[in-house]
Amino acid sequence: MEEALKSDQEFWLFGYGSLIWKPPPHFDRRVPGYVEGEDHRGTPEAPGRVVTLIERSFWETLVDPHATTERCVWGAAYRIIPSKVDEVQKYLDIREINGYSIQYTEFRPIDPTLKAIRCLVYIGHPENPQFVGPQEPQDLAAHIAKSKGPSGGNEEYLFMLEQALQELSEGSGDGHVQDLAKRVRQIKEADSKQCANIYVADSQVARKAVASEIDRIKSGKNQDPQEEGDKS
Fold it and tell me: Which pick of 56, 109, 147, 218 has the fewest CB atoms within 10 Å?
């Protein structure tokens, strides 16, 4: 028998992106699962890159360079303590509302004993100036690899998102996110090797310069030309 979740009488929030591992305050229950249908995992935003949700009907009008086969968006539903609902809504409006609209969607828990939950969700506006649309995966990975902000490197967000999605359930990983994470790791590894090679090259140049200076001193070429003229 399915467990009754009175989502019509409770405040539930669908958390995707960083809300999977950085939940809202004052929740008393977290349920892993997904939403499906009109809402689709969208493209990342500038200046760094983070995921947002857009309407599938809008997404299907875009030219997407990566294969999109998933018909659902994985995340977690959070039940907010009734006495804290107003406070949490104000918190989320500050954190999420810029360029988003508030909608409600049906959330399906991974646990088959739980019924669907009506959740509030933030959907991105296509007219948001930060919405960049689909990008070539390699260009997107390069941008993520070089972007940093007050919260840290953009790649940290991507790697945490990859891990958080995989930990929700078997099969909950996102192929696009995993591909991006792989590309970013390759870029960072190549950059590290290049830096190491530059360091080695600089070290070799420095050692040669020191050896040359020692040889010059030993040969007596360290005397000032004026001093040599006074001795003649």
Answer: 218
